[in-house]
């Protein structure tokens, strides 16, 4: 039965309203009831449809392992997975389904059985990508091209990063299509909400929107979004932007990332955004795409649970004894090009060089998570990091003391908490990172628990106030939310070394105040808060879906939905032809630029074909045909001199001529244009300071154009020019108005007069 319902739910009824889930009972002939269940005593209860959220990410929140004894695959939830944790922000009755890949390769023969187990026991739908597609998609396009570019690393040479590869891009599309197909298998498009995560799946919204015009889609980018100057180097920049805009809501960790995205949309697609009642929205062909800015948090319950374990307390006690008498500075990073580990080591060396008294007293413990990709760049990074650490340990170490301790084996969150708990300072020195939750985890661990307090030897009767110090790079997403942290430029090794010294010399009361500020924010803005806020905004963004009429337009990744009001009716050719043939008196008004002639055409003169068509229309005695344009009467008169019966309305109706042989009529009783002497010098001033702008002087109006100027600067200058002209022309009989890429001054409208 369920499979049959799923097949019915795949039907798209965009032109006929919404198809609800199939109800259980028909009580009255011709009237279908809501969902109902009948109990054993014969009473009927209404059953509300269960809310569902479909979470789509590159990797499922499960760990897979192969059991050799039974020759079967085993699975367990990955408690560290953000995608598993975020469900705490949804209402309790919400059903959450996950779509994504496994962290292991499953043989073709086992895929069906594995799919069944994952769906039934874990609510997971696995995507099985062919090995060659996965390699090109993940290790190729995602990790070696897109990830560096989004972190501001351009492949200037073949040895300096991977260049764009069309084959890897095709694999990226193929992989996203596989994810889309899996979503199709489980979605009820009229009720379910789809939440897509991260840069691996940026074209997925287009695949879903093309299939279901009213699908409810949110997208959250966990990496940085680069400035438009970096992003525009991407050969498929427009395709990715247009695909993202097929979402209803797009989320970012910081305003900087959102600003860069909006700037790219403005510069490359000509789209502008506006803020209404605190919400940022992009109008995209009648749809409003909401922009959400909210940094993710950590799972407080997970850390509180870990800190209450006796085994955690025992590990804290062991580490306290191991580093007895030493101040621990902690770093926790992926082995990644952008984490700044080697720069951190150099700063540690600088600290010991400048402060000999700290040698033997301060130790930097660096936990390195395994690299998520492989290749020469990762091997070079490992070699460089190890070399610097060895040099510093050789120069400043002594028997029983190593200034830098590197922990290379993989550690779980539970294993890391004891290190957080004993560290006096945490250093996050990334040169670029999307969010980075290490400072959050460190702060919560330093808040501690009774178990950790006993392990640290805290006086239970008179416990001291909690304290912590964070040194954080200004180039990572968590930096704005950590107002009490010491912010550094990671490229400035001297500044980072000074920050370490400041952290070590800081008074305890200052450490306490900084810790309290951070803990208050982190504990109240956890992962559940983040997920709940985004889920609520996604619901709000999709609220008007049923009140719009939707049409799909475009091919491939250029596909988009044109959304119009419920009263709008698309004109069909047969309706137009029928009405045309039935009428005896027709007025046909034709715009010129953008209608009769393409907007982008440099040669604005009408073609022979256009003139021929206009002659045919005008020769029908039932027709009155007019060209309506903002262009001057002389240009229009010359261009259309071969169409004798054509009416012309020049300069937006200021000049009107009913046919070639009739006189021009003007829409004013005055011939006074002295105000031009005031307006033109002002426009010239802005033209000189705005590269790409120009002035168009008409008989009755004067127009400042800025379509070829920088979009942002041109728009700002147009706003300033509008205010300037309104002030200097306040007492003149003119109207100053701003249009699309123009500022125009023209006379106030009066009645027509022939001349």
TrEMBL record:
Keywords attached to this entry: Glycosyltransferase, Phosphoprotein, Transferase
One Pfam family here: Glyco_transf_20
A molecular function (GO) term: alpha,alpha-trehalose-phosphate synthase (UDP-forming) activity
Membrane-crossing residue ranges in chain numbering: none
Chloroplast in keyword set: no
Catalytically driven reaction(s): D-glucose 6-phosphate + UDP-alpha-D-glucose = alpha,alpha-trehalose 6-phosphate + UDP + H(+)
E.C. number(s) listed in UniProt: 2.4.1.15
Listed Gene3D superfamilies: Glycogen Phosphorylase B, HAD superfamily/HAD-like
A GO BP entry: trehalose biosynthetic process
Keyword Protein biosynthesis: no
Annotated family: In the C-terminal section; belongs to the trehalose phosphatase family. In the N-terminal section; belongs to the glycosyltransferase 20 family.
Protein name: alpha,alpha-trehalose-phosphate synthase (UDP-forming)
Protein species of origin: Citrus sinensis
